């Protein structure tokens, strides 16, 4: 009986350890924007369906840093160049609908917010927006964007808290549907994290 009890305890211990490894296997996971809500979070919270793997990993849109001179290729900006998250790059959702948008007003202050599942030493956060009259019929490219960020938040190599908010003034002269590309640049790796948020000015 004692042997069976020890065996049961050992098996239970292994199962618990295995569950812990699985639950923390998202150590590859990092962060995403929820203000304005990003495409990856719309997929993760079930608002947009048919998104594939990103629905379980909204924090994992990681690609090369150095945007706009470097970074992901045109047409892969919203997925960070991760082909398994390619549904984020579509001009429409995977089921053919328009991407849901957040209403914003040009010239007004807006609070951007990131949620982090793994915090990294950070160079900065940069925000880009599409030009007026951009081509909405294809996956986002540099030509669609004003490649000068409308907001840059330096972070001096510090690690952000689990939730980070910062405010900036939204550009003027824009109307209708636009995409804001948020880029979180990591200080001590060659990568950055990318988040596309659809907005209506």
Automatic annotation (TrEMBL):
Region (Disordered): 59-80
Single GO term (MF): monooxygenase activity
Keyword line: Monooxygenase, Oxidoreductase, Signal
One Pfam family recorded for the sequence: LPMO_10
Signal peptide: 1-21
PANTHER family: CHITIN-BINDING TYPE-4 DOMAIN-CONTAINING PROTEIN, GLCNAC-BINDING PROTEIN A
Designated name of the protein: Lytic polysaccharide monooxygenase
């Amino acid at each position: 009986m004692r042997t069976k009890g020890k065996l049961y305890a050992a098996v239970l211990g292994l199962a618990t350890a295995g569950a812990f490894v699985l639950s923390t296997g998202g150590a590859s996971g990092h962060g995403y924007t929820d203000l304005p809500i990003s495409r990856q979070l719309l997929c993760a919270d079930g608002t947009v369906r048919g998104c594939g793997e990103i629905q379980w990993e909204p924090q994992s849109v990681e690609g090369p840093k150095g945007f706009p001179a470097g970074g992901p290729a045109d047409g892969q900006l919203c997925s960070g160049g991760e082909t398994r998250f390619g549904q984020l790059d579509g001009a429409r959702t995977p089921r053919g609908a328009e991407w849901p948008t957040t209403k914003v007003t040009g010239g007004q202050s807006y609070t951007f917010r990131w949620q982090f599942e793994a915090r990294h030493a950070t160079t900065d956060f940069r925000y880009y927006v599409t030009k007026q009259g951009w081509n909405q019929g294809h996956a986002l490219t540099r030509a669609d964007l004003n490649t000068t960020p409308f907001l840059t938040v330096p972070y001096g190599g510090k690690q952000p808290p689990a939730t980070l908010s910062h405010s900036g003034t939204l550009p003027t002269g824009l109307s209708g549907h636009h995409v804001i590309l948020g880029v979180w640049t990591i200080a001590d790796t060659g990568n950055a994290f990318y988040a596309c948020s659809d907005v209506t000015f």
